[in-house]
Amino acid sequence: MPSPSILRFTVNGHPAEVPCAPQTVLLDLLREQLNLTGTKRGCDLGTCGCCTVWVDGRPTLSCLTLARLTDGRRVTTIEGVSPASGLNPVQEEFVGLGATQCGFCTPGFVMTATALLRDHPHPTREEIERAISGNLCRCTGYTKIVAAIEAAAARSP
Amino acid sequence: MSSNGGPGPYRILGGRIPYVEGPLKVTGRAEYTDDIKRPGMLFGAFLRSPWPHARLVEIDVAAARALPGVYAVLTGARYPTAFGVLPITHDEMAIAVGKSRYIGDIIAAVAASDEPTAERALRAIRVRVEPLPEYADPQTGLTKVAEPIQARGLAGSNVQKEVVQHFGDVDAAFAKAAASVRVRGSFPGVTHAFTEPMATIAEATPDGRLTVWSSTQVPHYLHRALSEVLGIPMHRIRVIKPEVGGGFGGKSDPLPHEIACAALAIETGRPVKVRFDREDVFLTNHGRHPTQNDVRIAADPDGHLLAYDIDAVIDGGAWSSFGTVTTYYNGVLAMGPYRVPNFRYRGRRVYTNKPPSGAMRAHGGTNIRYSVEVGLDELAEKLGLDPFELRERNALAPHSTTVNELRITSTSFRRCLASARERSGWDSKFRQGPLGHGVGLGCGFYISGSNSPIHFTPKMPQCTVHLKVDMDGGIAVHSMQADIGQGSNTLMAAIVAEVLGADLERVHVIRVDTDVSPVDLGSYSSRVTFMMGNAARRAAEELKELLIKAAAELTGYPKEQLVVGHERFEVRHRPDVGVGFLEAVHKAIERRGALTATGAYNSPPMGGSFKGARAGTAPAYSFAAYVAEVDVDVETGEYKVETVWAAFDCGRPLNRLAVEGQIEGSIHMGLGQLMSESMNYRGTRLLNPSLLEYKILAPQQMPRVECLLVGDDDPEGPFGAKEAGEGPLVATLPAAANALYDAVGVRFHELPITPDKVVRGIERRRKEGRAWKGA
Predict the structure, then answer these.
(1) Which residues contact B714 (CB under 8 A, 6 or more apart)?
(2) CA dihedral for B699, B700, B702, B704, sign (positive or negative)
(3) Residue B607: what pLDDT?
(4) pTM (predicted TM-score)
(5) Side-chain half-sphere exposure of B169, counting CA atoms within 13 A
């Protein structure tokens, strides 16, 4: 196995230096080495979206991203978009409107939706559905997830 | 948090109550099994059989054991005790013994310092096998076979269970019928596709105890199976259920990997984690049985149903799992929501060398419901009746008994029909849209908790809830009921708060931990709201008594005059005289210390005296009438279900947010099975064990869902409630299939209904010169 080198990147606004083997994927680095377990492993194949994080602000599947490719870049996880206390508007609407059931897909949806509303504060329903089409949810039928994102959008200035 | 009350007499219940774990889940702080690490933890991995059916002649693990970083290698010889969720059909092994029975069967287990090392060890294991005949098709297993997959196959065949029932006189009924229909339904296997792959951590400690964290719907059954297979008394095993990322029945058996993980922990003396990848999940399966059913329905000239005659052959895969129940359910769950005076059923569940089938949401009731409801649509057409009219004429009456002696108490099925008909605009749409546009009706019912607990001690409660209140005034709720995302923790907290007049934030539900949680049988058979709800209410009533007594002492009024207020106890008609919640708690604690209370639920005796009479008995049933509206592109066969009007009788909905969530999620799952989901095999080899190739519906494919909650209070349900977890699924599939018929004039008896089938059906109809809607 090739020996690890040092990965230097920014995680949730804080600079970090982590030993990183060439084959390590970002999901494993975050969960196993940095204990950022809010990012979930659902399929390892880029099909479910549970592992969605941001790299330089863009929603990215961390299970398909070699950790080394994030050298010098900004990685944001669900822990990074959650306020120290309380919730962000997307999170508030997810809770209030029952858009979580088992919750395993939820961090990925929050990452996708928060980025969507940052870039497009007032998306159409079609734009919301397209944005979340890479995130699978087996509990909700997406109904309340779409409703929560719409409600959060309605709060955008 | 106390102002969510909806219509109705209750302060909290009946409203839209956000899930209590919501803030943890949206921030990634909810803890699932794979999020847990233990000091010195090893990783477990399994060697899965590449052979569909083979005698294990020799398993040489010496090279694997010798690898650095490998702590243990186990084969089935170490713990050869068979287990299974049903005590009558133990035929599953933690690690295969003697034979491998499907591609994916676990034949060795490794614990190593990390996962790559464990994988290397698996590759170093040498297995010598003698291949055995491979059985892919249940039809070939119905009679004597050369090598039965399991020793318990009936008369040397691969039949695991045969059910034969006959009530009334079916042949006589068909002889005098004015009309009859026959549906030969064909259903491939489908699977749960929950998002969280299974994971288990086990730790054996020097005090002789074993702790197991696992993603399970049934902590109690897991607890039993661990004890039976490992030979450790239950009181020395502790099962903890962290958050569970969905189950839908896929985590409702004790599973081999859970027991094998514990065996590795015992062997190594170190904590061991096992976590599945998606292929492991597909190979573990326990999903809905591939099914061939043959349903004949007879009616008189007025559309009164005379008889059902049903045959079902269901593909069980390699093990029994819940299969005996499934075999019964594929017949008896046809017996509502209509009165059917004559009923004959033959069901056979057959072992094959495929991943085991088991319980999946609306277990045993989905495929038979499809064939019945599609058949009724055809029958209505033959008789010249509106599909609603046919159902109206046959609806089971409240407080009636079916011919197979199922006790029906509350049913608002007629209200479901009326509501779906009116809200969907049925009368101006049915057979009136253009070609490619249609509406369809599908109905259903489902058990609200199985009346029969599936362990050997039916006199013990099916659910117990404990409450504890100490000086801080917080109400801790303990129960083994397993929240897997459906919101049962929220409901349990809300019921306790409702009874005690407390704010919801005062109540906290303690994570399932068999060391402290009293037994509940788990999340399956849509039992939790009904059984836990009653137990929680009784526990809270007991606690209320203690607090009312304390309030009586403090106010000087007799306790009969004290009532529950909001966060206080007050004198009836004198709300100005009373004491606060915490004051009452402190008074009550003075003499007895921390307050504790217990509530339990056991369903009443029911069912006939014939063999299998308990199958399908439940303390209540949910009812449904769904209308689906569909748009079909007649050139490509692509279609979209645009809207579903879901009229549902769950008694009194206690948390509207959760009931709607269950209905919406059920429709997603039901339409997935209808439109695209299928476990595809070449022989016994599963071809699509990934979420890329096994297609669940995307957001764009979801219909608009209108939830119409029309139930009357159930006499025995907690606050009048019944189940809403599984019944909402069954009506979905036939409603959409019948809408497709209205749209394009083609009947589909084989799922999934993919666009190519739609196009072929339309072409066939054209070639036969049978115009539909003028085209």
Answers:
(1) B409, B410, B448, B620, B651, B652, B720, B721, B722
(2) positive
(3) 85
(4) 0.97
(5) 5
Burial class (CB within 10 angstroms; exposed 0-12, middle 13-18, buried 19+) of B682:
exposed
Contact B75, B267 (CB under 8 A): no
A64 plus A94 within the same structural domain: no
B26 touches chain A (CB under 8 A): yes
CA–CA separation, B248 vs B280, rounded Å? 17
Residue A123: which domain range? 89-154
Torsion of CA A53, A59, A62, A63, to 10 degrees: 130
Residues A93 and A129 in one domain: yes
Q: The tokens of A75 are what?
A: 């990685």
What are the Cα distances from residue B767, in Å, to A112, B438, B635? 49, 22, 15
Q: Which string of b and e fits B551-575 if b means at least 16 CB within 10 Å?
A: bbebbebeeeebbbbebbbbbeeee
CATH number of the CATH domain containing A104: 1.10.150.120
Task: Please list every residue in chain A whose beta carbon sits closer than 8 Å to the beta carbon of residue B242.
Answer: none
Residues A75 and A120 in one domain: no
* pLDDT value for B753: 98
CB contact under 8 A, A48 and B691: yes
Residue where one domain finishes, among candidates A18, A48, A81: A81
Interface of A with B in 75-104 (CB under 8 A): 77-79, 82, 87, 90-91, 94-98, 100-104
Q: pLDDT by residue (tens digit) across A112-121?
A: 999 999 999 9
CATH number of the domain where residue A36 is located:
3.10.20.30
Strand, coil or helix: B757: helix
Tokens describing residue B361: 């949401």
Query: For residue B311, which of B284, B336, B268, B343 has the smallest C-alpha distance?
Result: B343
Q: E strands within B530-620? A: 562-564, 568-571, 574-580, 595-601
**Are A101 and A136 in a shared domain?**
yes
Domain ranges of chain B: 461-601
d(CA B535, CA B315): 37
In whole angstroms, what separates CA A113 from the centre of its chain?
9
CA distance B676 to B753: 7
* pLDDT tens, residue by residue, B171-222: 999 999 999 999 999 999 999 999 999 999 999 999 999 999 999 999 999 9
The whole-angstrom distance between B374's CA and the closest CA on chain A is: 24
- Quote the pLDDT of residue B775: 78
The architecture that CATH gives domain B461-601 is: 2-Layer Sandwich (3.30)
SS3 call for B361: coil
The answer to whether B486 faces chain A, any CB pair under 8 Å, is yes
Q: Which of A37, A55, A81 is the last residue of a domain?
A: A81
A127 and A96 in a common domain? yes
Report yes or no: A115 at the B interface, CB cutoff 8 Å: no
Instruction: Using 70 as the pLDDT threshold, list the residues of chain B that sit under it.
Output: 1-7, 455-458
Note whether B94 and B157 are within 8 A (CB). no
Put simply, the answer to whether A107 touches B23 (Cβ < 8 Å) is: no
In terms of Cα–Cα distance, which of B444, B369, B449 is closest to B728?
Answer: B444
Cα B754 to the center of its chain, rounded Å: 26
Residues forming beta bridges with residue B181, ordered by sequence position: B297
Contacts of B349 (CB under 8 A, 6+ apart): B159, B160, B161, B162, B289, B314, B315, B316, B323, B324, B326, B327
Average pLDDT score, chain A:
96
Cα separation, B384 vs B370, whole angstroms = 21
Residue A91's pLDDT is 98
Q: DSSP label at B154? A: G
Rounded to whole angstroms, the Cα distance separating B194 from B31 reads 16
| Residue B730 burial (C-beta neighbours within 10 Å; 0-12, 13-18, 19+) | buried
- Give the residue on A whose Cα is nearest the Cα of B244: A102
